[in-house]
Amino acid sequence: MIHPTAIIDPAAELAEDVSVGAYSIIGPGVTVGKGCEIGPHVSIKGPTHIGENNRIFQFASVGEEPQDLKYRGEDTQLVIGDNNVIREFVTLHRGTTKGHGKTTIGSNNLLMAYVHVAHDCEVGNNVIFSNASSLAGHVVVEDHVILSGFTLVHQFCRIGAHAFTGMGSALNRDLTPYTMASGNYAHAVGINKEGLKRRGFTPETIQALRRAFKTLIRCTDRAEALEAVQEDAAKYPEVGQLRDFVLTSNRGVIR
After folding, report:
1. Of 51, 85, 123, 217, whose CB count within 10 A is highest?
2. Beta 91-93 vs 61-64: how paired, if at all?
3. Residue 106, CB-side half-sphere exposure with 13 Å CA sphere
4. How many C-beta neighbours within 10 Å does residue 172 have?
5. Quick check: bond before 236 cis, omega within 30?
6. Mapped to the 3 state alphabet, what secondary structure does the chain carry?
7. What is the rounded distance in angstroms from the CA atom of residue 5 to the CA atom of residue 20?
8. Which residues are catalytically annotated?
């Protein structure tokens, strides 16, 4: 299961059934859970914790030092959950002491080729990052987000659950949940209606989200918009989530 050309530091901890391909390097402070498959020419540095049943393809760089000029070799980490697919040339960096000290990636995610996740990012579950999409430092991505190819996300931005970006989008503000955005710089197109249908959201919930989107994102009077969505927010938790996201946005939301 371990190719003879692989280099595994004695201080690394691998479950018994982990497979490691040719010429891969696994450093000290790395833990790899059961059922993981690590392809050839993969570099994994610690402190990095990788959960169970992950597949890491060739030439991925996992747990490397952050690309931050303030980093001075502190003991920061990368934590990856279970059942993720990490494709060719993906780069996942550890955190910094100026952030959380940790970069986290949840479970059941697909990170396609050349994806970059920078220091101190927090990535949820069931996300898809298409080819060459990139997160700058301190980005938060909630569950069920899809980033189309070559999407770029500015540092400290937040992307809400079930959001979707078009190809080549550049996000410099927060993207509200359930929303589609596209363009450079990105603008909000509407509710991610097709994605929500596929995930089993009821027609009534989708309609309520569309009303809330038009009110919260398109309205110029914030107080008036928040008042207008109160009734739907009380009836539909998803509308309340959309409203609360707007209220707590530090960078402002994409409109």
Report:
1. 123
2. parallel
3. 17
4. 15
5. no
6. CECCCCEECCCCEECCCCEECCCCEECCCEEECCCCEECCCCEECCCEEECCCCEECCCCEEEECCCCCCCCCCCCEEEECCCCEECCCCEEECCCCCCCCEEEECCCCEECCCCEECCCCEECCCCEECCCCEECCCCEECCCCEECCCCEECCCCEECCCCEECCCCEECCEECCCEEEECCCCEEEEECHHHHHHCCCCHHHHHHHHHHHHHHHHCCCHHHHHHHCHHHHHHCHHHHHHHHHHHHCCCCECC
7. 10
8. 119-120, 137
